[in-house]
Amino acid sequence: MDKLNAMSVFIHVVEQRSFTKAAQLLNLPRSTITDAIKQLEAQLNTRLLFRTTRQVNPTDEGNLYYQRCKYILSYIDESDHDFLHAKPQGTLKIEVHGIFAAHFIIPKLHAFLTEYPQIQLQLTESDRYVDVIKEGIDCVIRIGYLNDSELVVRHLGHIQQVTLASPKYLEKYGTPNTLNDLKQHFMIGFYSTARQKPLPLEFIVNQQLETYDLTSMIQVNGAHSYSSAAAEGFGIIQVPRYGHLKDIESGELCPLLTEYQVPSLPVSLLYPSKTLVSPRQRVFIDWIVQLFEQYPLDND
């Protein structure tokens, strides 16, 4: 039995003046109660209780130890209560794609920070692989399919993708009208730290996924460079629709092959542990899951 539990047993024995009654209250065998008291007396090298056939009474040392045990366990209970019932506070580090954060999260943050004013949010933006534990990240929001991960994963929804190219590119190479036409075209090669080979263009045809690995004049590993290269006419791209609405409206980028379905991308929330979640992590996790239940990603 650990020290705190043994101290609790000792308190009950003193207050009940009985090993048997203490055992009944704690729903423990009487032998366990006896062993706990013997363990304490051996550790302290002090006799704590006078035992008679009719009653148990504390010694002078036992009375002093009883008062200390009461104080210690009461302090622990109060501390637990303070943590359990206090408003979450402290710095919360969230790793998220910048455009996604600007479009979906930041406009909704007023409500979260009003409810939890003692939380300081730190949003970090990156397309690279993040070592969550080493870098002290509380939560990561990722777009796309995940490699096997030891992190806890919560699904937030799916986002729509669109196939785009610039007028400059289409003027030079023509507009593909069918998937077969893609053989004559170029794509911007996009690769990540998790995948060194550029991602192909993807379409769903007759409920089957078809992939097209086109020649790339340029390969990049950043979302901003990916879009910029397309705007400059270096090839075709497939991107989340929400991040390019202004480009489409302005005519800087043109939708292609709109009659063909493009797979949507999953959006996931990842965090290190299901059991050791801080109060500030828990309220953010609950908030963002509820946010995307209320405002589904695939509606945008």
Overview of this structure, please?
The protein has 300 residues and is α/β, with parallel strands linked by helices. Helix 1 crosses helix 4. The strands form 5 sheets. Strands 4-3-5-14-6 form a 5-stranded mixed sheet. It has a 3-stranded antiparallel sheet with strand order 12-7-13. Strands 1-2 form a two-stranded antiparallel sheet. It is rod-shaped, with a radius of gyration of 31 Å. It folds into 3 domains: 82 residues, Arc Repressor Mutant, subunit A (Orthogonal Bundle); 98 residues, Periplasmic binding protein-like II (D-Maltodextrin-Binding Protein, domain 2, 3-Layer(aba) Sandwich); 103 residues, D-Maltodextrin-Binding Protein, domain 2, CATH 3.40.190. The chain has 11 helices and 14 strands.
List keywords for this structure.
single chain; 300 residues; alpha/beta; Arc Repressor Mutant, subunit A; D-Maltodextrin-Binding Protein, domain 2; 3 domains; five-stranded mixed sheet; three-stranded antiparallel sheet; 11 helices; rod-shaped
